Amino acid sequence: MTLATTKSINWDAFVAALDGIEVIRDAAQVAKLSKDYYTYSPILVPLLADKVGDLVVRPANEAEVLAVAKACVQAQIPLTVRGAGTGNYGQCIPLEGGVILDLTKMQAVKWIKPGLVCVEPGAKLLAIDKQTRETGWEIRMTPSTYRTATIGGFISGGSGGIGSVTYGQLRDRGNLHAVRVVTMEDEPRVIELRGDEVQQVNHAYGTNGIITELEIPLGPAYPWAELIISFDDFMTAARFGQVLGDSDAIIKKLVTIFADPIPSYFVALRDTIPSGKHCAFVMVAEPSLEPFGDLIQQFGGSVCYRKTAQEASKGTMLMEFTWNHTTLHARNVDPSLTYLQTLFPYDKELKLLEQMYHHYGNEVMLHLEFLRVNGCIVPAALQLVRYSTPERLKAIIKEHEDSGAFIANPHTYILEDGGRKSIDPVQLAFKEKVDPYGLLNPGKMRAWTER
Ligand SMILES: Cc1cc2nc3c(=O)[nH]c(=O)nc-3n(C[C@H](O)[C@H](O)[C@H](O)COP(=O)(O)OP(=O)(O)OC[C@H]3O[C@@H](n4cnc5c(N)ncnc54)[C@H](O)[C@@H]3O)c2cc1C
Fold first, then answer.
1. How many CB atoms lie within 10 A of CB 221?
2. Scanning 46, 116, 180, 292, which has the fewest C-beta atoms within 10 Å of its C-beta?
3. What pLDDT was estimated at residue 5?
4. Is the CB of 37 under 6 A from ligand 1?
5. Which atom of ligand 1 is nearest to the CA of 328?
6. Buried/exposed code over 186-200 (b: 16+ C-beta within 10 A; e: otherwise)
7. Residue 200: which CATH number?
8. Are 272 and 400 contained in the same domain?
9. Residues of the chain whose pLDDT is less than 70?
10. Is ligand 1 within 6 A of the CB of residue 325?
11. Statement to judge: residues 210 and 237 lie in one domain
12. Domain boundary residue, one of 369, 388, 407
């Protein structure tokens, strides 16, 4: 079905029907709240720059979400959910206008049990952790946008992050326990999904339900020390990362490796990191620091930055140079840079990685994030790419794929064309049930548009 153009909608009547729910109609604000960090991609910029919603609605609770859903279905208005808008592929950018549903007012932490927390979707990761850490627990993994991103946006649009070296990725069974979802049927209702059922909406870009509550598992909260270790050559740094990842008895949360010249893009660390060095950025539990020191010695690394957990709780966190913050810092220095997202195959000798490092030199600079995949520690990469043309970017992606590396393409806003590669019949079936008019974030789920 083709949606009616939103130009023909009587927005005054629509707003009146919302009966006091906060609405933003100021054009500049609506334009701002229609965007995310899609500008990392020179491919996405021309496709998304002119896409804006018609207005923003900010519900304060699930009852208000139900009321907005009902009004949108009645008037056949597209609805795109927004958390903090820190996604990197235009996930929350409305392709067909309509309502932006901003859930940042729904930020309650409803309850905390040992190992489990129940939250509203607009709660920020850092704010959740502040409460759970008082009970000795913390969120298992967070994006480097820990201060700003919402839990609903992380589950719907993110993949993993700081903590993934221990707990894997968001899609892994056990990393999301339950959700409540508001539907877009003629009579919108709330559905609770538990256990494997959550995969129906997990990482679906808000195309098949509005998540209004989540049960998130927690891990033990350690005092995390932050260290930067420098190395003379890249492959020693990379092997150090692999061995640290594999060291089950050293408790860690972050194992990031940067090839030179990436550290030189971190303006705030220029006096800290000796020039020309390759680096490891790590978060290690304070009780593990002694054995960790022996590992550093074994690999001939030099510690050039060290903060206790207490010191790390103030100012910029080390994680805010890692994951996709690396790309942010690099682009602040050189806006022509873009990036890739790669998963290298499991190989303790890191042969393909070494081959790629020598093959591309500074055209594709290696930034590794070690993470756990099906029980094995593997390097994921968010390489910095010196962008020249779309054709060259495509060729680099193809060369990686042909060599056996998996690319989660960050230069597409289509759900299936990113990391998934094929349609998910379970998510499509759920959409057919709960969003029969295709109003939720239209244009993002290929399975729906091409069915
Ligand atoms: C500097 C930087 C660093 C980053 N680092 C990481 C990282 O380490 N790991 C990582 O995975 N990502 C990372 N990202 C991407 C992004 O920050 C995360 O995925 C983040 O968790 C998204 O949260 P958000 O609240 O900003 O979501 P948004 O961008 O607002 O939304 C993301 C998607 O989720 C949908 N959505 C939001 N809330 C709901 C809901 N309640 N119900 C249904 N759908 C919903 C939206 O429609 C959209 O499709 C990074 C981005 C930047 C800019």
1. 17
2. 46
3. 65
4. yes
5. 1
6. eebebbebeeebbbb
7. 3.30.465.10
8. yes
9. 1-5
10. yes
11. no
12. 407
Counts for the chain of helices (H) and strands (E), in that order: 15, 21
Is 243 a member of any domain?
A: yes
The answer on 297 and 207 residing in a single domain is no
Confidence (pLDDT) at 233: 97
Residues 135 and 235 in one domain: no
Pocket test for ligand 1, best of 34, 65, 86 (most atoms within 8 A of CB): 86
CATH number of the structural domain spanning residue 381: 3.40.462.40
Query: What is the pTM (predicted TM-score) of this model?
Result: 0.97
The residue whose CA has the least distance to atom 4 of ligand 1 is 324
How many Cβ atoms from other residues are within 10 Å of residue 135's Cβ? 14
Indicate whether 258 and 402 sit together in one domain: yes
- Whether 170 lines ligand 1, by a CB cut-off of 6 Å, is no
For ligand 1, mutation pick of 101, 324, 328, 431 (most atoms within 8 Å of CB):
324
Is the C-beta atom of 142 inside 6 A of ligand 1? no
Ligand 1 atom nearest 181 alpha carbon: 42
Residue 269 CA to its chain's centroid (Å): 24
Ligand 1 touching residue 441 (CB < 6 A)? yes
Ligand 1 binding pocket includes 339 (Cβ within 6 Å): no
In a domain? residue 320 = no
CA 15, 19, 24, 30 torsion-angle sign = negative
Domain that holds residue 248: 224-307+342-407
Which residue puts its alpha carbon closest to atom 46 of ligand 1? 92
Tell me how far apart the alpha carbons of residues 313 and 320 are, in angstroms, rounded to a whole number: 13
pLDDT at 160: 97
Residue pair 137/113 in contact (Cβ under 8 Å)? The answer is no
Ligand 1 atom nearest the C-alpha of 81 is 47
pLDDT score at 1: 42
- In our burial notation (b when 16+ CB lie closer than 10 A, e otherwise), range 358-373 reads eebeeebbbbbbbbbb
Number of domains in the chain: 2
